[in-house]
Amino acid sequence: MSAMIVFTATSSKRQKLDFMGCCCSRTTRPLTHCSKPIASSTALVSDPPFDSYPVPCELFVIRIKKISTQNKIYWYGTKDYDYWEKRGVPHEKPLPFFGNAFRVFTQKVSPSQGGVEIYRKYPNERFFGSFFGTMKVLTILDPELIKTILVTDFVYFHKRGLNPHETVIEPMLKNLFFADGDLWRLLRQRMTPAFTTGKLKAMFPLIVERAVKVQDFADNAAKSGTAVDVRDLMARYTTDFIGACGFGINIDSLEDDESNFRKLGKRIFNFTYRDAFVLMLKEVFPNTFKNLNFLVSEIETTTMHLVQTVMKQRNYKPSSRNDVIDLLLALKEKGNLVGDSIDKFKPDGTPIQTEIELDDALMAAQVFVFFAAGFETSSSATSYTLHQLAFHPLEQKKVQDEIDEVLSIYNNKLCYDAIKEMKYLEMAFLESMRLFPSLGYLIRKCAKRYTIPGTNVTIDKGVTITIPVQALHMDEKYFEDPEKFIPERFSRDRIKDIKKYVYMPFGEGPRACIGERLGLMQSLAGLAALLYKFSVEPAPSSLKHPVSDPTSIITQNIKGGLPLYIKARA
Ligand code: HEM
């Protein structure tokens, strides 16, 4: 069909044909040797014989070339589709270019929910293969094997592999979540001490300040008597928390939905068709599109501007705010990041030393990770907890009774130690993250050839590994009545019955969430502040089983938000 279009070529297009050859000689001599001009497409199609007519012959060559180009493209989009077949791995049948992710690329289903659908087809397998575009994916189902991959054999699976190109990485994606190899290792080593209990406690007054503001906002909502989207409410609380603890600035997203910072948060997680298209191009043609940035430029410039402004205000020295900028400035004072390489070795087998400068862009990327890894996760988990409590009034009452009791010991003031004592609140939060984990799957990339223990299946460097967290959390093999909200599953007596490497809302192994305790404490503080003064109830528009947003790509989100009534407690 596309070759036919060339038949009606204008003179300028015809110039290009000159180099394709003609029928006079069946060689590649210029077209001017041919006597008959191109008339119209219909004439050309209907006028045989083919080789008595100069131009069709030339077009035949074009067509062959086109077909061979199409073949090459087709070959490129399907060349590895026998990968799992050859290894005898149970697998899904792929579609050219899309693999098994057609519904993900067309935003009909999120990767997490797509993972649940496929998981159910393999109830008795330890793993299965599939293709995300042209990317080979091995999904691990067996908890023992999950442990082997995430922990025991971490040296083969230290990468997350989210950057389609190994060396050309856009500045904001050089953050701890997206970074791989030596950059990841040096950042993780240096940043881990920033998340100790002492540092968390020092940061806590900033968190409490934001949590208390949730009460003011909820008060207005309660007085208005209308349903409030608690997903939006908790996103604003988390945005304020990230502003205060991450960027070192006070923003009022709770009051001002149009603040630039709130807009930045919304844009980062608004996965548009443009983003889906860019992602597909980068996945399928990583080299060709290596310089095409996944993040739109406004995200990079706004983050850089904010971080540089705050650092300049502090004269590039830590202040006494104890926020993330302070932690990074303190790290910078210690000089470059230096340490053993994770994958480069001397001939004697010892790792070589690597060194990376912690410049402004690299620091901004780490602040950005607060947004990238902390924002959506916390706001999704807290709002989903409120949703569950609204539909489970008895459990909500238990949570509130506990908050009242604990706070009465602490002069009715939220603080780190008080939150630590709210065990039932924590259980309700953990159960909500079981039903709807913020990250529905974990991801790793195979760094060197690896034979799966107990099998003769060997996978190559570059194969993507996924752990289907959402599906595991909902498997009746591991959780009785998995659809039910039962916080008691996480009570001190029963938590030990949960099989290891099945419940993983914060991931597992050396690449598990570095902000787990911060995320947990900040989430519980927001929930405690709200539920101390208010109750939540389903509104007419609330869905008991809300629908997962198909456009969410890494973290999960709810389509249409989570509308609830907020009512002042009697
Ligand atoms: C309720 C809140 C949170 C949840 C549910 C959550 C969940 C997760 C999960 C599932 C991962 C991937 C782990 C893996 O692949 O094994 C992760 C990684 C990460 N999270 Fe969180 N997170 C939360 C809050 C935070 C916060 C507040 C921060 C801020 C610092 C943060 C920073 C990170 C980083 C930097 C990583 C990448 C770690 C690495 O690759 O070394 N998270 N998180």
Protein described:
The chain is built from 21 helices and eleven strands. By secondary structure, the protein is of the alpha+beta class. A hairpin with a 6-residue loop joins strand 7 and strand 8 (458-459). The strands form four sheets. A four-stranded mixed β-sheet has the order 1-2-9-6. It has a three-stranded antiparallel β-sheet with strand order 3-11-10. The protein has a two-stranded antiparallel ribbon with strand order 4-5. The relative contact order is 0.13. Residues 1-54 have low confidence and may be disordered. It has two domains: 2-78, no CATH class; 171-568, Orthogonal Bundle (Cytochrome p450), CATH 1.10.630.10. Helix content is 47%, strand content 9%. Protoporphyrin IX containing FE (HEM) binds at residues 176-177, 188, 369-370, 373-374, 377-378, 381, 438-439, 442, 505-508, 511-515, 518-519, 523.
